[in-house]
Specification:
Number of helices: 5
Radius of gyration: 35 Å
Structural class: mainly alpha
Number of domains: 2
Helix content: 55-70%
Strand content: under 5%
Shape: rod-shaped
Largest sheet: none
Number of strands: 0
Order of helices and strands: HHHHH
Amino acid sequence: MANMNNMGQFSGDMDRNEVEIDLAKFMALLQEKSELKDRIRELEDINNVNPYQKWIFLAQMVDSWRIFPRVFLSVYIFLLYWATMWFMDLPEPSLEQSGLISVLVGAGAAWFGLYAGTHKAPTAGQDGQKK
């Protein structure tokens, strides 16, 4: 009679990590688990739409093409050329004027060193090896 009251409950040897369950109940649990997984996938698909994804793609494009460093170097080259032409047109350059040109040329070396020495670091999930 005690066995009849335990029909809907789990039974088995808990010391050996074994559980006995009715096959119909087991199949119902598997079906419920499958339905829950399907519902989770549906919710993840709906909620993963990022309204800023286009901006993220634009940022990745700007980063991969290195647009800003190239623009900065181009402007620097133009300004250095302009300053050099100005300096060479001076009839008698002073110590301060020649110091300005020296600083500009030295800054160019630093700019180019930073530009040439930087590279895109691997992001999460990448091993950093080129294939």
